Amino acid sequence: MKRCKSSSRRISVAILAASLIAVSGSVFAQTVDQVLQAQDRRLDLAQQSQERIDAVVEGTRSLEDQYRAINKEVDGLKVYNRLMAAQTSGQTAVLQDIALSMDQVDVINRQIFPLMERMIDGLETSISLDVPFLLEERTNRVSVLKDTMERSDVSVAEKFRKVMEAYQIENDYGTTVDEYSETIELDDGSVRTYNVLRIGRIGLYFQSDDTQITGRYSMEEKKWVIDDSARNEVRKGLRMAKQLIAPELILIPISAAPAEAS
Predict the structure, then answer these.
(1) How many angstroms from the chain centroid is the CA of residue 42?
(2) Residue 244 is assigned to a structural domain of this protein
(3) Number of domains within the chain
(4) How many CB atoms are closer than 10 A to CB 1?
(5) Residue 59 to residue 166: CA distance in whole angstroms
(6) Alpha helices in the chain (DSSP H)
(7) Is 166 part of any domain?
(8) pLDDT > 70: what percent of the chain?
(9) Strand-pair partners of 210
């Protein structure tokens, strides 16, 4: 009987211990789950906090970048304003000069027109006293200048340019050699077209195509005269002017300038 009671007690104790272990295991499992859930919540909270921090940092960086960009733009505008101020100052000075020039335009026009008239008259006188080469062309140029002076559709600057151009053409005649054809009347009444050789302003010569008649313009007598003394030299000069032969020295008579009246 005692053994049966002892066995029953051990079985009861074993059952009780098993029950306690089962209950403890269940409680432990619940505690672990709670701990894991709490850990997950902390992780979620930490992740949310990090995201908020990242958003704040990104926003701060964006504001900083905008601040730097605005500062750079402000610096550029300062430089631009300095340049514009200097340019405006320069333009103001130019405008003042233009205004002053415009005030003087009428005065200049009143002075330039008499000057151009005197220049044209001087050019006309010079041609009339000069060796009579290309006489029609040169006198026509003077006539055109006189007509241009009376035209209202031509600016003062253009009129002055044309006068200076005519003077330059006349000046170039003194340093060039030329040949052309011209109808010449001699003392015997004969009229014929001759080849004319111009050497600057110091000599004017003529020769027929067959070289049988050669002559020159005499400044002393103010007419064309026959002078056969330099036939070959004049022929050579004509060939050089036509660029048929290379330039070389020629010996030809030159008219002396007329003596001034005392």
Answers:
(1) 75
(2) yes
(3) 1
(4) 5
(5) 79
(6) 2-129, 135-149, 156-173, 231-241
(7) no
(8) 83
(9) none
